[in-house]
Amino acid sequence: MRKALLRGNPVLVEMQVDAGFDVLSGVEFWESNGDSQDRITPLIVVSYDEELEAFELQNSLGNLWGNKGYIWMKYADFEQFAINGFVLLPD
Description:
Elements: H1 2-6, E1 11-17, E2 29-30, E3 39-49, E4 54-58, E5 70-74, H2 75-81, E6 82-87
Parallel strand pairs: 2-5
Antiparallel strand pairs: 1-3, 1-6, 3-4, 4-5
C-alpha cells in the first residue's frame, strides 16, 4: 500500500468502525474505544507518516468530520480494522 501511495495512487479501504466514528469532530487521531466495531465504512488512504507510524485517511462526510475531513490511524489499528483495500489507478 505504501508503494501505491508513493506513486500518487490513493487506496480505497473498507474499515470496521464503531457507531461514534461518523461523529468525530476536531479529532486528529482515531483510536478504537473498545466498543463493538459493528459497522463498515469506506475510506480513502491518502498518505502515511513513518514517524507517526500512521496512515492519513479521508472520509466522505465533509470538513466537519475528523480534522477537516481527515484523520490519522496508527498502523496497528489499521491492520486490526481494515477489511479490504483497492488501489485506485488512472486510465
